[in-house]
């Protein structure tokens, strides 16, 4: 599943399509494709893992789910796109994703303060939300898109390792400094992720995600599907402290 930084890269790669009139629409989506024909792309935006194509009276929301992909100005050979938008400036092809229309203004639908990649990101708001749910597990908190929009499983695992917090720790039991680091590093690591992905070296910088040996102490890493989300966590029992209210 593409995480927030990957959606930012998509937005940048497709920037030349802003202002383009859509001349042809194809794909196996059940959406009313005719609604897009003749529309002009006013802006490309992102919120967390949502890629947003804004038109005059509505917007298109794209979520890539677990296995979604895209191609800009080219196509995947032999694969029918979920949705394809073409015009004189180029084309955008979306595969294995969820697409739907948003009829309300985007600023009334999305709270940009919750997006870890946004200029409007508000760490104090994230802290207030965390403190309102003291029993929330750290592994679930980081994947909660209402708190950390754009954070995915890779960022979750790497942030928890950076701040030495066990994924099953309760956020209400974390010392104030550790909780503050969790919020800060969710954004810091997301921008590191963005820089590494732009340079095609992201995987080289993974410390624990999909790894088997702890780079700090040399112990064998644990892994398992943890928390409410049941997403796979990779962590070190020696280096990451478990904080519980009991």
UniProtKB/TrEMBL annotation:
Keywords: DNA damage, DNA repair, DNA-binding, Endonuclease, Glycosidase, Hydrolase, Lyase, Metal-binding, Multifunctional enzyme, Nuclease, Zinc, Zinc-finger. GO terms for molecular function: endonuclease activity. It holds the Pfam family H2TH. Signal peptide: none annotated. Residues 2-90 form the Formamidopyrimidine-DNA glycosylase catalytic domain. Coiled coil: none annotated. SMART domains: Fapy_DNA_glyco (SM00898), H2TH (SM01232). It catalyses: Hydrolysis of DNA containing ring-opened 7-methylguanine residues, releasing 2,6-diamino-4-hydroxy-5-(N-methyl)formamidopyrimidine. Residues 207-241 form the FPG-type domain. The keyword Cell membrane does not apply. It comes from the Bacteria. The keyword Chloroplast does not apply. InterPro entries: FPG_cat, FPG_N, H2TH_FPG, Ribosomal_uS13-like_H2TH, Znf_DNA_glyclase/AP_lyase. SUPFAM superfamilies: N-terminal domain of MutM-like DNA repair proteins, S13-like H2TH domain. Belongs to the FPG family. This is Endonuclease. The lineage of its organism: Bacteria, Pseudomonadati, Pseudomonadota, Gammaproteobacteria, Lysobacterales.
């Amino acid at each position: 599943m593409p995480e927030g930084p990957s959606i930012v890269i998509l937005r940048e790669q497709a920037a030349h399509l802003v202002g383009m009139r859509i001349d042809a629409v194809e794909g196996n989506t059940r959406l009313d494709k005719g609604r897009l024909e003749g529309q002009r792309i006013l802006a490309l935006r992102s919120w967390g893992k949502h890629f947003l194509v804004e038109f005059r009276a509505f917007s298109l929301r794209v979520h890539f789910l677990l296995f979604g992909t895209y191609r800009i100005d080219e196509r995947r050979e032999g694969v029918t796109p979920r949705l394809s938008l073409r015009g004189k400036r180029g084309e955008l092809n979306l595969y294995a994703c969820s697409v739907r229309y948003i009829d309300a203004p985007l600023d009334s639908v999305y709270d940009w303060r919750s997006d870890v990649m946004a200029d409007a990101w508000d760490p104090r708001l994230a802290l207030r939300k965390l403190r309102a749910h003291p029993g929330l597990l750290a592994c679930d908190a980081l994947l909660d898109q209402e708190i950390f929009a754009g954070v995915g499983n890779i960022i979750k695992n790497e942030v928890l390792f950076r701040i030495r917090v066990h994924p099953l720790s309760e956020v209400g039991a974390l010392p104030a400094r550790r909780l503050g680091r969790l919020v800060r590093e969710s954004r810091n690591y997301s921008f590191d992720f963005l820089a590494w992905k732009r340079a095609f070296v992201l995987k080289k910088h993974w410390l624990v995600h999909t790894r088997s040996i702890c780079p700090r102490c040399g112990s064998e890493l644990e892994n398992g599907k943890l928390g409410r989300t049941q997403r796979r966590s990779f962590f070190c029992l020696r280096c990451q402290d478990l904080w519980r209210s009991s």
